[in-house]
Specification:
This protein has 13 helices and 17 strands. With about 550 residues, the protein is an alpha+beta fold.
């Protein structure tokens, strides 16, 4: 009968397709390049790490893990590359919730995985896919870490990631912060909402402004093992972050960081898959990671070098020039903060124009009215901002009480008030110190721009705290490395030299340059003769 014949044909077709799929899978597994890892029956708690180049022209690879110790309850298999995204999967072909993709990826393997996907094997088999065939060789760091059933499972209480168990982390970049997200751990025999596992976050800085593959992989390798994480990593303070598994970090563009999560339960621990970020697109290293090199910024940096040295070494002497520079800096900064309608070159141009106008107005006010307190007010205000910002750079803002914006800005304002105290005395030395501090910092920022470093973030971090939402919850900790030590010493030397030179020149001179409306008797000092020399008038 026609109906029965059609059904038979469908059944036969289904059987043929199933057999073809099975055969093709076996054939594929036979021809796919294999990455073999022999655990040699290592006991739980041990790990094997391999570093190799994938040079095959195909884009499919099989990872075979053999000779697994019988006491191993689960394993974390992780893979790292420098830039290329790979896909790690339990199956081939890929099914939903069976894979993860990126350049810092990992999966948990246990005895239930083969059963879930219809396999019966005592070996662990995973599939590694490249995105496109016929690619150049790629460096791959592969690690396998073994655990017992009493150890916490990283990401075992996954709520939102793509795989059922998620031992990896995810990264999100914005203009100012790096957000690292992970999933809660689990433990055998306890519910996720009742377990007592403690979780801590760590990070490790890579050498700044360096994009070296050897340092990159070595740093990741350091952060795979618990003992090394404790030894080399910097622990995130408790209480930081929006949630326990979502942490914000201040972004230092061009400086890499390795981020890792460690969970501990009854003295046993597990380490999540480390993840790395440079805060930029490393495939466009020169353009995106080393900073802007446009005409505007080159002019600005040249301005910083010239004006910084001028203010530091002779700002008190060249009083009107200093007023213009300080006025320009203040006006440009305020405009840069308030101008939200423009970005990029438009915002920079507006800030420059407003700075020029404000500098001219500030000099005019001195020329017209000659109010000394008003003239030097901006100098002490900017010096106060720099001092307060330096304390934020030194991680004062990460103290629990100052993560609250109100508390932080009250502290910031208090520091500025303290730095204004010398203004009441109107002593030339205090004005010289303020100018030396501002001028030497401007010079150091310019050098920092050309040679690399992070001291320019002293003011950038304050700007971010003012403009970026929830920035108070971010880890501000700067990469204070060898370059920063050299810059700090140079800053101190230039500051001390500037104060010395200006103070020596001020001896015997009026405390401040006289205004045209004042008489010379307004500026008497301890070296001014009390009696003027008498002049003899000779009449002819």
């Amino acid at each position: 009968m026609p109906g029965i014949s059609a059904k038979v044909n469908y059944v036969v077709l289904f059987i043929l397709i199933s057999i073809g799929t099975y055969v093709s899978r076996i054939y594929a597994e036979a021809i796919y390049p294999q990455i073999s890892i022999n655990l040699n029956y290592l006991p739980p708690g041990e790990s094997i790490t391999k570093f190799q180049k994938l040079t095959n022209l195909d884009y499919n690879n099989i990872i075979n893990i053999t000779n697994i110790h019988p006491n191993v309850s689960f394993m974390v298999i992780q893979i790292h590359t420098l830039t290329e995204n790979l896909t790690l999967s339990y199956t081939d072909p890929i099914y939903v919730n069976s894979f993860t993709m990126g350049n810092h990826i990992g999966l948990v393997w246990n005895d239930e995985i083969p059963k879930k996907y219809g396999k019966n094997t005592i070996e662990a088999v995973l599939y590694l896919f490249r995105q496109m065939p016929v690619l150049a060789p790629v460096d791959v760091l592969l690690s396998v870490k073994t655990y017992t059933k009493y150890d916490p499972v990283p990401g075992g209480c996954n709520l939102s990631f793509e795989t059922e168990i998620a031992p990896y982390q995810k990264i999100n970049l914005s203009a100012a912060v790096i957000t690292i997200t992970s999933q809660p751990p689990s433990v055998f025999g306890e519910f996720c909402n009742r377990n007592t596992i403690t979780t801590e976050m760590y990070y490790l800085f890579l050498p700044e402004n360096s994009y070296n593959s050897d340092e990159y992989f070595q740093s990741i390798e350091k952060m795979m093992i618990y003992e090394n994480v404790i030894k080399y990593g910097i622990k995130v303070r408790k209480g930081m972050g929006f949630t326990k598994f979502k942490q914000m970090y201040n972004k230092y563009t061009g400086t890499g960081r390795v981020f890792v999560v460690v969970s501990t339960y009854q003295g046993r621990n597990c380490v999540y898959v480390p993840i790395v970020s440079y805060g930029c697109n490393v495939n466009a290293w020169e353009e995106d990671c080393l900073g802007s090199r446009g005409l505007y910024w080159n002019i600005t940096i040249a301005f910083y070098i010239i004006c910084g040295l001028l203010i530091c070494l002779g700002g008190h002497r060249f009083f009107k020039i200093t007023l213009f520079i300080i006025g320009y800096t203040f006006g440009a900064t305020i405009m840069f903060l308030l101008d939200q309608d423009f970005s990029g070159k438009g915002k920079e141009t507006n800030a420059c124009i407003v700075g020029l106008l404000f500098g001219i107005i500030w000099v005019f006010l001195w020329w017209k009215f000659g109010v000394l307190v008003l003239a030097v007010e901006l100098t002490f205000m900017l010096a106060g901002v720099l001092v307060a910002s330096t304390l934020l750079f030194a991680r004062w803002g990460e103290i629990d009480i100052f993560t609250n914006d109100l508390n932080f800005w009250m502290l910031f304002a208090s520091i500025m008030v303290v730095t204004h105290t010398p203004l009441l005395c109107l002593k030339p030395l205090y004005h010289i110190i303020a100018l030396g501090l501002l001028g030497s910092y401007a010079f150091i920022v310019a050098i920092n721009y050309y040679m690399g470093g992070s001291l320019h973030y002293i003011l950038i971090n304050t700007y971010r705290r003012l403009t970026v939402r929830n920035f108070g919850m971010a880890i501000v900790d700067p990469p204070y490395q060898r370059l920063e030590i050299y810059y700090t010493l140079l800053w101190a030397v230039i500051f001390g030299l500037g104060v010395y030179v200006q103070y020596r020149y001020s001896i015997g001179k009026p405390p401040f340059p006289p205004h045209k409306s004042r008489t010379e008797f307004t500026y008497l000092n301890e070296r001014t003769p009390l009696l003027h020399e008498e002049r003899t008038i000779v009449s002819i």
